[in-house]
Amino acid sequence: MPAVRWPAITLPVVDIAPMLGGADAEARGRVAAEIGEACRAHGFFYIAGHGIDEALQARLRDTSRGFFALPAAEKMRVEMRHGGRAWRGYFPVGGELTSGRPDLKEGLYFGTELPPDDPRVRAGWPLHGANLWPAHPLALRAAVLDYMAAATCAAQAVLDAVALGLGLEGDWFRRHYTGDPTVLFRVFRYPPQAPGEAGWGVGEHTDYGLLTLLLQDDVPGLQVRTPQGWLDAPPLPGTLVCNIGDMLDRLTGGTYRSTPHRVRNASGRERFSFPLFFDPDFIARVTPLPEHARIDPGRVAADRSARWDGASVLAPFEGTYGDYLLGKVGKVFPQLREAVG
């Protein structure tokens, strides 16, 4: 098989295969060091060796394209308002807000599939329940659930490396936060934007959780903000993009930074992306990691001034991850604020 030729980039590529089992401590330590350096320098990196089968990725792409090719009325049969407190389903172009502005994308929201007799569903927990599955294509359900399971394994492996890089035991996050993670998955379609067209597929933002794993198709559009300016993060064969979110930034006291990013599809073709958000247990208490319990107020002020929205992720917070997450929901979908509050 010929070697993969990647374009010239500055974001690192980390092979996480040693974290998925069978590797010795030295190999795992090398992965942890590379990811730790990437989290401090960029907050963004690519991962190879993630264990997600290429055929599964193709199934996900093909079935997703089939859904978005349906007439608008058919897609609206699984509109998000039908998902209620579970916060699942379809939204049309302009139906999601970033920093208060409509995004130029449409999407499908999924999460961990729970039956109606699950105690969390019976108790009415927000963001917990069943997904809304479209009638066509039928194969979408299996593709989404299989991909979510595979990507969740990869995310746990990345967090094991993050823990080691912070001087913690490899299973620290599993024991304290992600033994029963909050997993949210999206399928986004970005229509091509005409030259000079105003707006963004997704405006500048940071993700609010622990980790995001992003599968891209072959169409570029993702950009990452660096001290030197905006950097393209194009699709690389065999890799996923990984970035840390505000919660990991908070837990590490700003040692690992959540990095602003945005999307503009100027390719002339439709673009698909598949982000999986891997976050703490809904009822986990948010507390800093060891050695990061005290944050200087001046650091909070500096963080606030550096953020595009003027909000510091290091500001004091008391409560569960669910409390934190629900505080974000209404800003993205104001019409769902009451349904999930």
Low-confidence sequence ranges: none
| Overall pLDDT confidence | 88
- The strand count comes to 14
Q: How far apart are the termini? A: 52 Å
Radius of gyration, rounded?
19 Å
What global shape is seen? globular
SSE pattern, N- to C-terminal: EHEHHEEEEHHHEEEEEEHEEHHH
Beta-strand content estimate: 15-25%
Helical proportion? 25-40%
Topology:
Layout: E1 13-15, H1 25-41, E2 44-48, H2 54-68, H3 72-75, E3 89-91, E4 97-98, E5 101-102, E6 106-111, H4 119-122, H5 140-165, H6 172-178, E7 182-190, E8 202-205, E9 211-216, E10 222-226, E11 229-232, E12 240-244, H7 246-251, E13 261-263, E14 271-279, H8 297-306, H9 321-332, H10 337-340
Helix pairs in contact: 1-5, 2-5, 5-6
Description:
By secondary structure, this protein is an alpha+beta fold. The chain contains ten helices and 14 strands. The chain has helices at 25-41, 54-68, 72-75, 119-122, 140-165, 172-178, 246-251, 297-306, 321-332, 337-340; strands spanning 13-15, 44-48, 89-91, 97-98, 101-102, 106-111, 182-190, 202-205, 211-216, 222-226, 229-232, 240-244, 261-263, 271-279. An eight-stranded mixed sheet has the order 1-2-12-9-14-7-6-3. Strands 8-13-10-11 form a four-stranded antiparallel sheet, with no helix packed on it. The longest helix is centred in the middle third of the chain and has 26 residues, at 140-165. The termini are far apart.
Q: What distinguishing features does this structure have?
A:
four-stranded antiparallel β-sheet; 341 residues; 19% strand; alpha+beta; eight-stranded mixed β-sheet; 10 helices
